[in-house]
Design goal:
The chain has 170 residues and is α+β, with helices and mostly antiparallel strands.
Amino acid sequence: MVDAGTNLPVKVESVLMSTQGPVVMLRPKDSDGQDRVLPIFIDQSQALNIQLALEGQLSPRPMTHDLFNNVLNELGAIVDKIVIEDLAQNTFYASLYIQVEKPGPNGEKVVKRFDARPSDCLALAVRVGAPIEVTQKLMDAASIKRSDVGPLPVEVSEDDDEDVDLGVER
């Protein structure tokens, strides 16, 4: 039995369009045959940001997440990891962990924690290749069977970027 306080490394399995809006599917990296995913509904712009990052597409101008990462790097900091920690009143909560260049008094790495929206964290983590984690407690409480999801309808309106297909699974 995994301790409820532990975190599971996960990966973005896919970004899909559902009848309720864009959804990011997170799957544990070591699934061990488990058929579980954690669906997180996000807004359209974050879905596009995440999808573009998954496809390795670069914007001609820095997007917000690119800018933030550039600022961090210039200041000698990096994204250490993100952790999706909780779900309350249909809202997911996450933390962004930033490692700063200056070591602590005993030479240890210094990591600062910031409260953040999961969609922002995911967009940034996918762009920079940072680890994504979900608490075991949250995965146990909010994950669903992947086989229960089935094929989701994909409808990209004329208002959406035609080059981005939110139905592409990874």
